[in-house]
Specification:
single chain, acyltransferase, EC 2.3.1.57, globular, transferase, Acyl_CoA_acyltransferase, 7 strands, Aminopeptidase, 7-stranded mixed sheet
Length: 148
Amino acid sequence: MLHLNTITKENWVKAISLRVREDQTKFVASNAVSLAQLNFLENFHAKGIYHGEEMIGFTLYGIDEDDHEYWIYRMMIDQKHQGKGYGLAAVKLVIDDIKNIKEEHHKTITLSYEPTNEHASYVYRKMGFQEIEGLIIGDEQVARFMFV
């Protein structure tokens, strides 16, 4: 069963050693960059995605300073664990975690991805994210999940 654990001094080295496949490196920043970025983001959470005791992925999410809503900035599953349905389960974990910590005025979760990343598009659509037509940020398609 998958679960999330906060990135700490005990597990950060494992987080930065996770890798996507070579053909996916253009789709996501490295986890080391994400952890460095965390120093400049308030209200953000860096978490390892765990299958049992093994970290198999990484995510970074929190309240965006521009729109004051939740954004998923990073989501990745290590290349050795891709194709096992963990991406869908990991996105659900993040949605559930945000539901548990958000305040009532938070209505959405937003993310963006490379338009050529068909797998990410599929996973996010399946989990309830809807592409915002015509909204591209830094060459990435923006999609949004609405809390009901």
